[in-house]
Amino acid sequence: MAIFRKIHVSFWRDEFIESLTPEQKYFYLYLMTNDRTRQCGIYEITLKQISYDTGYNEETVRHLINFFVSKHKIKYSETTKEIALKNWGKYNDSTSPKVKVCVNKELLLVKDRLLIEYLYSNDTHSQEEQEEEQEEEEKPDLGGNTAITKDDLIDIRKKDFANQLVFFLGQYSKEMIREFYEYWIEPNKSKTKMRFELEKTWDLNLRLKKWERNSFGKKKEVVKANQPYL
User: Fold this and answer.
1) Residue 163 has pLDDT above 60, yes or no
2) Per the confidence metrics, is the pTM higher than 0.85?
């Protein structure tokens, strides 16, 4: 458990932070400074604990987490109850060798390895042409056997996409979520991109609302292959 957390003064001048409501600013600051945070930017915490600490009910907590997930600022694993903060290093970074050793040790304790990929890997959403030309992708050096091969990347992103959708099961039916998932994970011919990755813009929350509103799942043929992630 950390004794304190430092937040750079530039936090309050960040364009994204300035766009938030007071409630969202408070919640985001809580995520970055609560006593369960780790130096690596990934830590375990339950919705019940967040609710107790902040005074919000669990429905409000889930709504706020969904908001920051949709803005690509955090990822939350329902399975392991772990959260990853995308901008942790931006506001809470350190060049101390001791801190780096601490980070490597903490990463070995992370249960959901997709969260490590989310924070520490190179961008896996570059242009398709670049991906096909690139012979080998650089992998994060985390002091252990955590490197991810190129063949694994699309499967990892598929599981990551499913993990994001789990958060919306309280708002939409499991059947609708599954149909949405199976439609958007269809790969391109070269097997390097899924359908949702080829979109110029992508807001998961808005896409789900539009899917429900237009009943897309009933109009489109759903792939019948078994999907192990939902």
Assistant:
1) yes
2) no
